[in-house]
Amino acid sequence: MIALAVIFAFLLAALGLGLRARRGRSMDLEQWSVGGRGFGTVFVFLLLAGEIYTTFTFLGASGWAYGKGAPAYYILCYASLAYVLSYWLLPAVWRYAKQHRLISQSDFFVAKFDSPLLGALVALVGVVAMVPYLVLQLKGMGIIVSVASDGRISSHWAIVIGTVALTLYVTISGIHGSAWTSVLKDVAILAVVLILGIYLPVHYFGGVGEMFHAVDKAHPQLLTLPSSGMSASWFASTVLLSAVGFYMWPHTFSAAYSAQNERVFRRNAIFMPLYQLILLFVFFAGFTAILVVPGLKGADADLSLLRITTATFPSWFVGIVGGAGLLTALVPGSLLLMTSATCLSKNVYRLARPHTSEQHIGRLAQLLVPALALISLYFTFNGGSSIVSLLLMGYALVTQLFPALLASLAPRQFVTKQGAAAGIVVGVTTVAVVTLSDVTVGSLLPGLPQAVKDLNVGIIALVLNIVVMVAVSAVTRTESPAPATTAALRPEPEATAGTG
């Protein structure tokens, strides 16, 4: 009961912060979805860092360290690579968005390619990709609360209660609610992850080095990449795909639009790779659990961190771990709901009713939040797959937006709206086919060398996407190329940065 009480205290604190965030603001669509573009370094850092520290951090990263070993380190690598990309990508995106007062990711494609239809396509792809990502958060929240409370509250009820809470504060406070709850979340998760990652190896083995020696002695295959399957070529291709897809999530665009100026992104690009190193402590906990709580198979490996926590610590600390885990679902979940609702109302509904006022679009977006929450609950209770599998599927989908986005930032735009749309459709269709049929590069082309057969199957979708995009653009390109977009690539004058 103590653990359960602590978890509910975290839930009430998050709800209170989320609702209070609205105070003193007139919540129009721009304020609700991108915070009036007034967030400084701290809030933007926390919102973008929310992409790292989700339920995936708690369950997926430790679960993969437990069940698959060394391949889990791809999680540590891809975000670090993405931060390098963000140093140049996000300032250009933010600058263009500010000049044209864009609200959603789809708006960016509409403006760049002068095509509301392409914007609707991007919105639908984004929402479809966010469903497995949101399901991931809700499933993780249910597991965390149920295990941490020792089964006193079922996973189903934990998911329902948590979803009601985040739906409530997102509908009322928008991105301001997400930003303020992220403050509580990051403080809690940093403390919990450091304690678990340091204490558990020391407690059971005498130190991190001793823990790895023990794992190496018992399961030597877990500390190296296998020669086939999740081999070095799978590792490199998965890191590359995840890195280019990292900033393609629609909610990441919303977080980026909320910045006061572009210097915010360059500062964050410096510090975020250091923040990413905290993930090492999650891996330490997962590797420690291999020998302390053995026997977890398949998707149950995601429970490894919680099982070793409940076996080691008193109830009150288990409650803190459960509360921190709950917050890792609420913050990204709230951003996903808000962004999905914004994309559907602004880029899909408005396509059918172009004369709808901005006020009506804003009210519709808020009304769509509970509707989307109900749809997510349906898929959460009726879906399968492990935590990491859900994340990989979502990444494979949003990564298909990257070629068109990158092409749109070129000084002379070669890619046409038809080419961009065709590439996205082919890429997303390929991802859907290979995901549903569970094929790999090796099963499609068994005669290829092992290193090629082990490539992440998302590479196929991305290559087809680019080939089709270039070919269709070459056919549909008019004599006069699209106007250059150099204004978006010019850095803004030096400005005083906010701090949150």
> In whole angstroms, how far apart are the ends?
37 Å
Percentage of helical residues? Answer: over 70%
With helices defined by DSSP (H or I, 4 residues minimum), what is the helix count? Answer: 24
Whole-number mean pLDDT? 84
Give me the strand/helix succession: HHHHHHHHHHHHHHHHHHHHHHHH
* Overall shape: globular
Low-confidence stretches: 481-500
Query: Structural class, judged by helices and strands?
Result: mainly alpha
Describe the sheet with the most strands: none
Radius of gyration: 22 Å
Find the count of extended strands (DSSP E, 2+ residues).
0
Beta strand %: under 5%
Structural notes for this entry:
With 500 residues, the chain is mostly helical. 74% of the residues lie in helices and 0% in strands. It is built from 24 helices and no strands. Helix 9 (175-205) runs antiparallel to helix 16. The two termini are 37 Å apart. Residues 481-500 have low confidence and may be disordered.
